[in-house]
Amino acid sequence: MSIFPPPLARRPRFAVHKFSSCDGCQLALLNLGDGLLELAERVDIVHFAEFGAVDEDADVDIALVEGSISTPHEIERIRAVRERSKYLVAIGVCATSGGIQALRNLNDASAWTRAVYAAPEHISVLDRVAPLSAQVRVDLELWGCPVNAHQVIAAMHDLLAGVSHAPSRDKLCMECKRSGNPCVVVTEGLPCMGPVTATGCGVLCPRHGRDCYGCSGPAESPNVAALAARLRSLGLSRPEVAQRFLSINSGAPEFAAIAQHSDD
Amino acid sequence: MTEGHSLKVNVPLLARVEGEGALDLDIDRGQLVAARLRIFEPPRFFEKLVEGRQVEEMPDLVARICGICPVAYQMSAVHALESIAGLQPGGWVRDMRRLLYCGEWIESHCLHIHLLAAPDFLGFPNAAAMAREYPEEVRRGLQLQHLGNEIMALLGGRSVHPVGACIGGFHRAPSQAAISRLRGRLHDAVPLAEELVRWTASLALPHARQSFISVALRHPTEYPLNEGRIVSSDGLDISIAEYPEHFAEQHRSTSTALYSLYRGQPYLVGPLARLNLNLDLLPQPVRRNLVRTEVPFPSSNLYHSIVARAVEVHYALLEALRILDDYRLPETPRVEPKRRAGVGFGCTEAPRGLLWQQWETDAEGRVLSCRIVPPTSQNQARIEEDLRLSIEAAGLDSPAETLRSRAEAVIRNYDPCISCATHFLTLRIHRTGVEE
Q1: Does residue A263 carry a pLDDT above 70?
Q2: In angstroms, what is the C-alpha Rg of chain A?
Q3: Do A232 and A116 have their domain in common?
Q4: What mean pLDDT is predicted for residues B316-343?
């Protein structure tokens, strides 16, 4: 059974670009198995370096972009990608919120460069790590750390069929309840981030008997203050509560807002 | 071309490598004056990001260094942090960690063999083109890769940044039913892994012997994954805590990764080094299948790395089956974590080789500092040495396209993971004096 709808009149031109990231979101494609071969038949993969196609300057219909913007050169690159791509999809939280490396926005990046590298004058980084949307218009954001095959296939499915794609930003907590998992906050007192985190991962952490750590980023309308108060009542100190929010998605404004609740 | 010519060639991005780097070859008047692997993955400052945070977060955070080998980062970290706290998680946890790691080896090695390396030896630009003429071989590879992912998903929910491992063990034990389902599928795949080894051995791999030092973990009774002493082909045999006395990192202006040297020399880590140093620890079925291929190990031909990777896929599959066959539900999947001040070391065998870490924590369980030495930065000096030897052997006045494809194949033998070391290969060959 095919995972993609019937082909368009013209084979769509497709690219995957990488910016500051761990490579993990591209694996949603590289781990597709037969689906990867099918994708290669269905679209013209014109740029996807890890897959063996290199033409970064080609015009494409759909560009998937992994990673955040963290160097001056990456600003130039993402602007060029935007110009050459009809539909730009940010995949993974590095691309949508800055990802884990945005934690350095809370610190002094130049001091870190001096601490890590013996020849810091050769290292060029921006003061702040930013999501793609800080530099260019993004047509679709797929959140996740990493995004999974379901998310990417569902998006590609819609885009290839020429319809818009609108992934759910419902709360993980709700999906977890519907799945019938015992609540890890109620039964074990774990500091679960499910009430403020977006669904999409398949409720992995509660299903594995542990607390969600918010890697998929904020759900729509998260009640950060209420969860912060609940986490305090579980015995977490104020800095510990702040670190629950300021982790893999510290660059998401909804989670960054924890700073306003840290002195209650 | 005549002797004394010089050349410039530029390839802006090397394909089929994990991450982004660049390669410079400078040929001046018939002499190779430089062969440098430049790594320009933007620095992500992982070692600094984790300072001041709670140790319990570390398995989830260090996984994000690399999407292709997250388990390796998790494993080296939990071993180091448990050694500080004095935790001894016991046999069940030890087995499950081996199982998880087997899944990562199978996934990562199969991805490299089929999607990244094999197209070089069969003359295709990528795996999709290769699949049109070698459909069964590519599908077999993707099927094995998928099984590796499933092993990781059994223990961690997903294969990229799995969520199951923690300090002290695992958050949850898999059910007997889930174990049985997977066991049956792994059983059925054993012939595929045996065929894979023979197929890689049948590829037209170049004959290119070089002299180099192999470095890997060695355990008294088993092929190394999570534990062992660090040994080398020139007689080194040290505990993991002694690593800094023999290995040093340098920063060069051409790279955001740090270079590691062993007593001032390049060295090799990864599947070929591991196999060279641990051949006697392979179980009989793996050795018998390997002997049939007539590829001689220990080998000094880096192109045999693809065979070593396939051998490790076969090994990891049988080891996973052994662990699943003996599976019992534990009383508890983890020992309670403790917080203690101190310094600890973790060193495990990532798919690409030795992954060494040093952690320091305070009494409240906060990270004071850490140092992470990934496999690719350890291989970097060896890659450059290999490039120099291989390019000279190919003939410095060969056409630029020949030198370029040879250089790319050389680099891919090491499966460099530049997101880890940091990642991206742009190739530039400079032959000064002559326009190509």
Answers
A1: no
A2: 20
A3: no
A4: 96
Tokens of A210: 């542990």
Determine whether the interchain pair A45/B128 forms a contact, defined as Cβ–Cβ distance below 8 Å: yes
- For residue A113, list chain B residues with Cβ-Cβ distance below 8 A: 43, 45
Supply the pLDDT for residue A155.
Answer: 95
Q: Do B19 and A23 touch (CB under 8 A)?
A: yes
pLDDT tens-digit profile of B276-314?
999 999 999 999 999 999 999 999 999 999 999 999 999
Cβ-based contacts of B254 with chain A (< 8 Å): 122
pLDDT of residue B399: 86
Helices B91-110 + B305-325 axis angle, to 10: 140
- Contact between B77 and B55 under an 8 Å Cβ cutoff? The reply is no
For the CA atoms of A112, A114, A117, A120, the dihedral, rounded to the nearest 10 degrees, stands at 120
For testing contact with chain A, the best of B44, B171, B369 (most A CBs within 10 A):
B44
Q: Which candidate in A16, A19, A23 is best for mutational testing of the B interface (most B CBs within 10 A)?
A: A23
CB B411 within 8 A of CB B11: no
Nearest in space to A50 (alpha carbons), one of A72, A28, A74, A75: A28
pLDDT tier at B5, thresholds 50, 70, 90: low
Of A240-244, B118-122, B126-130, B426-430, the range with the lowest mean pLDDT is: B426-430
Nearest to A117 among B61, B163, B251 (CB): B251
Domain containing residue A132: CATH number: 3.40.50.700
Cβ–Cβ below 8 Å for B143 and A205: no
Shortest CA gap A11–chain B (Å):
16
Q: Does residue B171 belong to the interface with chain A, where contact is any CB pair within 8 Å?
A: yes
Q: Could you report the per-residue pLDDT of B114-135, keeping only the tens digit for each?
A: 998 999 899 998 888 999 999 9
Looking at domain B9-41+378-432, which of 3.30.70, 3.10.20, 3.30.60, 2.60.40 is its CATH number? 3.10.20
- What whole-number percentage of chain B has pLDDT above 70? 88
* Tens-digit pLDDT profile for residues A10-32: 889 999 999 999 999 999 999 99
Instruction: Say whether B16 and A41 touch across the interface (CB within 8 A).
Output: no
Q: Are B59 and B77 in contact (CB under 8 A)?
A: yes
Q: What's the structural domain count of chain A?
A: 2
Could you tell me if A107 and A228 lie in one domain? no
Residue A243: other Cβ atoms inside 10 A: 18
Assigned architecture for domain B46-373? Orthogonal Bundle (1.10)
Between CA A250 and CA A245 the distance in angstroms is 7
Taking an 8 Å cut-off on Cβ atoms, the answer to whether A37 and B138 are in contact is: yes
Q: Which of A22, A97, A105 would best serve as a mutation to test chain B binding (most B beta carbons within 10 A)?
A: A22
Structure ipTM: 0.93
Rounded to a whole number of angstroms, the distance from the CA of B338 to the nearest CA of chain A is 17
Assess whether pLDDT exceeds 60 at residue A264: no
Domain with CATH 1.10.645.10 in chain B: 46-373
